[in-house]
Automatic annotation (TrEMBL):
Family: Belongs to the peptidase M16 family.
Protein name, per record: Insulinase family protein
GO terms assigned for molecular function: metal ion binding
Gene3D superfamilies tied to this protein: Metalloenzyme, LuxS/M16 peptidase-like
Keyword Nucleotidyltransferase set for record: no
Alphabetical UniProt keywords: Signal
Residue span(s) of domain Peptidase M16 N-terminal: 67-200
Classification via SUPFAM superfamilies: LuxS/MPP-like metallohydrolase
Signal peptide (from-to): 1-22
Domain Peptidase M16 C-terminal: 217-388
Source organism, top-level taxon: Bacteria
Length: 461
């Protein structure tokens, strides 16, 4: 199974976040219109069943092919009880264990018979189940997915076996120093909020997971409910057929009552730091600042996206200085994360020589400070906004890519139309907005420094 640890990679991570706009999800039968000018190039139809399940259909020119996604708005963020982390990711595994009607082997046989491939992935704010296959076999996709979402069955023996697999996955991933640093940064940056632990959870909880069979049943009962779920179908399909099948297979799914109590994180009042000593690993500096929660009503995230893109692009002064001219770093980059609650924006640099770590940190900090007072070039701003907006759209050339892009906004807000509202904000970003978000978010008191280097300490304090 794929899982979504927040890897220390330099690509923009579209993680997700909640919004008060979840209530705006279509409550009437079917809607395709939105008051915001559509950026998304394909028609979106929505229907909400009486039990709260949101059904989204996007007809897409992919003859004979359809992608079937079930987006569950439950991730490691929702693991609120001490001692029970890692269960959102655990269910990414156990959901393939089968039901009375379809055993694991029979489920695999069905997928093979309809030419479908299925998988799942988990992150801070959600778990996504997806398959792509023969659009003419859409009803069979509905049948097997509705069955396991409503009738999952696994024995205590199966549970322990899967818990062991999760532990093995944790052990494998934790061999990476990037993963270790990621865990340390999250643990240091958060004191109250569940973002303190990564998607995999705390190791002590993973070790104890085989003893938590009864709790696992409660977790499934809480979150695998229609009000937490959006059914998304993209491809060679018609909305009337999708809606009819949704009624047939999902209308009897019982709504739940559980709401997790997420403790907000207090404001950070002083910088923090974590360090991993390793002389045989390329030195690394990460600067993690407190960022905003996702919102499609604010320009903050688009402005931060534009800011970091301009700051770390290969033709930027900082990149040219550190990577090309001085050759002190192998790479430098960063971006905001899109999450339901305020999370971290991390800038990372792989440093060639450990004695240059302090210098590199200072140069990154200096560049961030300049963004607070020095207006960005108008043409470069316009070009960057255009590249970000339409670069996103250029990737929508297959049904699974379309579904994956839409699913991000579904788990952030509960409303697929949030995509159009969010990208409309890019058009409004000004040079003054870039300065404003730099001043608001890149502040020393909200910084957590993470380092990997040969010394016992980073030496950056």
């Amino acid at each position: 199974m794929k899982h979504a640890l927040q890897a220390l990679a330099l690509s923009t991570a579209l993680l997700v976040s909640p919004a008060a706009n979840a209530q705006k999800a279509a409550a009437s039968p079917t809607t395709a219109a939105t008051s915001t000018k559509s950026v998304f190039p394909y028609p979106i139809q929505q229907k909400q069943l009486a039990n709260g399940l949101n059904v989204v259909t996007v007809p897409f020119d992919s003859p004979g092919l359809a992608s079937f996604f079930l987006v569950v708005r439950a991730g490691s963020r929702d693991e609120v009880e001490p001692g029970h982390t890692g269960f959102a990711h655990f269910f990414e595994h156990v959901m393939f264990r089968g039901t009375e009607k379809y055993s694991k082997e029979q489920y695999d046989e069905v997928l093979q018979s309809i030419g479908a491939a299925a998988n799942a992935n988990t992150s801070l704010d959600r778990t996504v189940y997806h398959m792509t296959g023969n659009a003419r076999m859409l009803e069979k996709m509905f049948e097997v997915e509705a069955d396991r979402f409503q009738n999952l069955k696994y024995s205590e023996h199966d549970f322990k076996a899967e818990a062991g697999a999760v532990k093995g996955e944790y052990t494998k991933n934790s061999a990476s120093l990037y993963t270790q640093l990621n865990e340390k940064v999250a643990d240091a940056a958060f004191d109250k909020h569940t973002y303190e632990h990564t998607t995999m959870g705390f190791f002590k909880d993973i070790v104890d997971m085989p003893n938590q069979y009864q709790y696992s049943l409660s977790f499934f009962d809480r979150f695998y409910r229609p009000e937490y779920t959006t059914l998304l179908v993209v491809g060679d399909v018609k909305s009337e057929d999708v809606n009819k099948l949704a009624d047939k297979y999902f209308a009897s799914w019982k709504r739940g009552t559980y709401q997790p109590n997420i403790t907000p994180e207090p404001a950070q009042t002083a910088p923090r730091a974590v360090h991993i000593q390793n002389a045989n690993f390329p030195p690394l500096v990460s600067l993690s600042y407190r960022g905003p929660a996702f919102s499609d009503q604010s320009k903050d995230l688009p402005a931060l996206d534009v800011l970091t893109t301009m700051l770390f692009a290969e033709n930027s002064p900082l990149y040219q200085q550190l990577v090309v001219k001085e050759q002190k770093v192998r790479f430098v980059g960063g971006s905001p994360n899109y999450t339901r609650d305020p999370y971290l924006m991390t800038v990372r640099a792989s440093v060639v020589k450990p004695q240059d770590m302090a210098y590199v940190k200072d140069q990154i900090t200096k560049a961030l400070e300049e963004m607070k007072t020095k207006p960005v070039d108008a043409k470069r701003l316009a070009d960057t906004k255009s590249a970000l907006k339409y670069g996103f759209l250029m990737g929508l050339d297959a049904p699974d890519q379309v579904a994956n892009a839409l699913s991000q906004f579904i788990w952030l807000t509960g409303d697929v139309q949030s995509l159009n509202r969010f990208y409309a904000q890019y058009d409004q970003v000004t040079a003054a907005d870039i300065q404003a978000v730099a001043q608001k978010y890149f502040v020393p008191a909200g910084l957590t420094v993470g380092t990997i280097g040969p010394g016992a300490t980073s030496g950056l304090q």
